[in-house]
Amino acid sequence: MTQTYPLQFKPEMKERIWGGRALEQFGLELPEGAIGEGWMIGDHPNGTTKVMNGPLAGLGLDEIREKYGREYFGTKGYAEDGRFPLLIKLLDCNDDLSIQVHPTDAYEGLPKGELGKTEMWYILAAEPGAKIIYGLKDGVDRAALAAAIEEGRVMDCLQEVPVEAGDAFYIPAGTVHALCAGVVVAEIQQNSDTTYRVFDYNRPGLDGKLRELHVEDSLNVTAYEGAGASRMKTDSIGENEWLVIAESPYFVVEKGLVRAPWKLSTTPESFVILVIAEGTGTLSWDGGKQDVKAGECFLLPASLGGYELDGNLTVLRSVTP
Questions:
Q1: Can you give the pLDDT at residue 2?
Q2: Which residue in the list 16, 65, 83, 197 is annotated as catalytic?
Q3: ∠11-14-16 over CA atoms, to 5°?
Q4: pLDDT (average), residues 122-144
């Protein structure tokens, strides 16, 4: 067993009808096409990332789990029969995403082997006037939503929220939502690829055909009384301190501003995910040091222990609660 160290993965890039080329601004290599999603840390049948640094380079996150599961993921982050619990993405929304909703773990209609999907967004960049769809308007029940879908006026039922860089959104399963054109987003979510589309603007997909809608499933899983969604501005934060910006049964996400050397530590209970949102700096640990910059994501093993961040950085940190 090699000494544990922060793992960086080669992203899995996904072409999407709503994607673009904005992830190139982080120095990421994109294949041709409209790239909407970079799966930065993933252990899912639809995308498994491979380590690209250090002695474990070339191993997939699934192989890390099988070989070193509890040591790397921690007592709360490791399940004998489960995949890595989270999926970490960067999203380029060059166009509007479909109006959608995700199920909970308890939904009977889940595809075999899948989980529900609770997630959070941190807005990395937003064009002037950018917005998102975030929940139903007050008083919209199942009958009202079903009628609106049937009659082609579902947008009348939805709340629009203006966004700017630094905004954070918690989107528990059951919340109807959509990212819209002009935003670049870091997403931390349950390890699931299950999405039910409510409406897709009657536009063709990458194959030229209309994309499938999931109306009945959407109506079934929507939380009409609200699921606990919350949002916040995150600029009221001091240097070298953490601000909790999303909290769920699956992850706790904090934002930190690094302006001087900051000594931190993992615990045996959980791995740590670091998403570098802005700036440049260094990540050091016992036995190593690495330059880091915006757009990079790291998995710090639960057994890593002490580490230090330095430079001029905005960082998102996620742990298993």
A1: 67
A2: 197
A3: 150
A4: 98
